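Hey,
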Amino acid sequence: MLDGKVIAVFGKYIKVHYRGEEYDATIRGKILKNDLKYSPISVGDNVKFTIEHNGQAVIESVLPRKQLLARPGVIGDGKKQVIASNIDQLVIITSTIKPRFKPGLVDRFLVSAEYENLKSVIIINKIDLVPPDNYESYALTWSSLGYDVAFTSAKTKVGLDDFMKFLKDRTSALAGHSGVGKSSLLNAIQPSLDLHTREVSQSTDKGVHATTTVRMYPLDFGGWVIDTPGLKLFGLSGIDKENLWRYFPEMRDYQRHCRFNDCVHINEPGCAVKKAVETKKISEFRYINYKRIWENL
């Protein structure tokens, strides 16, 4: 059998990459029956496959997955929908405007990455439209927590060297709201990809999906990148109100100083985290986002 990598999934139709070539593939029925917890096949999966006489590839088995991104399935059967597997890092892309800057969504992605033990990179795109100084306080806060942050513009090429440096020799999943410029950035660093892009709606200031399905691409300078459809909501699988604080790194050192061991840092008296927010040792915007996520769990 051959060793391949799944680079696209369109329902029952799958594309597998093998030695620079792409093969249309199907799955053996036994794979669908074996995995009851997660979706049976996802972009990024390493697979064993055979090629039949008609050139059709057949996936015989899926190798064990490492880090993955998942969200609750849409049909409510308890099975998780795997967005991407075997990734090294999550590259979170937001924009200064068109659509508007959303630090709350960035923090939501960061929580998921912390839960999956993934490295996170934050790209603030479209700085040709609004000066980066307007977002420096957010960037400094995220940087102080150990996250890599860069300002970019696909239009003026600013920051593209940093973007490429973060992607080189890694498998990266790109995440962000529709219209923030994921496809434009990829086209800017590797024009041969020729990914479809669309403008942001002028009436709603919301992005229109340019990418309609999760797709994986090899990078000429080394590494793989997974372009995801713009996500309006991102499920926090495995995270609840009792453990959310664990995925905000700045809260961990203060937790042990709270009056109550099971403090969740919302309404409890003697909360060291809330005290740290009051004394500006913890960012106020981060704490506000923590509360919003907590309320929606």
